[in-house]
């Protein structure tokens, strides 16, 4: 198994990418890690370590966070991200990982690596933690790979996520909920009503019905499927609300009386642990599902620990042959399912 | 000024509705409060109070929370909500307030009270608190009165909210942001791209551009305009995330060591104050804007304090003649703006 890594993407690149990768290379001797980026900048973080299963492919350009995604992928052929994607396309690597420009990574997946036959639109998927007792976490997709979804896209996303949940999370017949603005069958906009009908009649899905956004963190279903616009909006709302609340708690404590201040100091560690659990950036990575190889994205602010976590995920997906299963399931021209 | 109140709608009706109304009646001698509901059930909360500006209109039926909205409004002519709406239509009252079935209240506004000429779709609007220093709160609409929006609806909502912000909040040239999944001009789905173009070229709007959902609570703009599906989804996400976090903090403290437990007890009051500020249900009320009279909705779980707050809001809207201003601005057949 060979993972191509864009060492230059992200706010703390290449340092945190390289450190996370070194850690993963030590843990996983069966996996080959290919770091695409500036050799000198990368090598300085190696110190005296010399691992057989890590390789640097020197590149001189990079995709910037404000680059136009499609143009960057088409024109910056020598950028670390694009070269890493090309290595996957050419069969020199099996998976792609980057903390860089999300749009450009989606474009690299689509334009360089290529879609799976019969999948009209790949989707970005991540895992939400559950705070509701023993309930499992939920995978949620699409997070915005595709802003204008059609019902057939929503169905394909639900089917792909079901295969992922079976292969990677070991869940038999994972439940699928449709993110909607009401739980009743006839609720929502035209897209959601039509998507509901498609999901409900597909025998390959364990369809739960509609779920509302207030239940996103309650682990009601194994998979939450949303159109890319709404999925992106609710994820950012969650992020904003969590950050706002945590900073409001800090302010409340700082501006409080002595009792509040002392109390705040006493629960500081406990709050930190919780904040980490809530911050989905720490949970690690979004998968571009529907392309010919695993393409994993992590937040621009990712540190080494998250990089290590994402590389572990990539390796799990490769070990499970998840993408081959997707290709098989969608290979029949007449009945894609 | 006469406000028709559905005394039977909401989880704590009629008690909390009546108590909030009695409080408002004492505060606002210039306003007449008309309580629609079961007379005996209402009067028991009056005790020895006898106020000149409060009146009970006896009704025997009510709209249930699980009633189909349109059917309820069409068939339950003797329900407290529908009779209160009819009083507004007939000129016996000037505004409508309810904590009952949201869909039925929207339908009452549309089917009984009626749209403002040239407004294709009324919208539900509420105010989000801001936690970012000195920044003002933001009004947000549509929260789901209309699940399938067209660009013209988004524009009309932005124009109506601007008049509201001028009249009620005293903001000159309020800034309007479009809720989108990226800040750049060309971002989003087809609906948002077309809405952006309409908003950008309208000389009556102070258009800020796109804003992202992670900034909803930062008071970046005075008005946030969204399509009803997304607006509803992000509001419920905010609610769910806030509730989840608050309960996660509680669990963290309860399951913590002695230090954490003592600390938690010490900051309890401060956290309660904050939780109240965050909970948008407490902030009070959503306005159905675009119908011929102010129609105000509050959450089913509203207590007397929130009812009082909403009735104050209704009175402010009546005092400012806001609906007349909307009607004037949209009265010209040739150029509605």
Notes on the protein architecture:
The structure is a homodimer. Helices cover about 45% and strands about 15% of the residues of chain A. In chain A, strand 7, helix 7 and strand 8 form a beta-alpha-beta unit. An eleven-stranded mixed beta sheet of chain A has the order 3-2-1-4-11-10-5-6-9-7-8, sandwiched between helices. The model of chain A has no long low-confidence stretch (mean pLDDT about 90). The longest helix of chain A has 27 residues. The two termini of chain A are about 30 Å apart. Chain A is an alpha/beta fold and about 325 residues long. The interface between A and B is large, with 57 and 57 residues.
Index terms:
homodimer; 337 residues; alpha/beta; 11-stranded mixed beta sheet; 12 helices; 11 strands; 46% helix; 15% strand
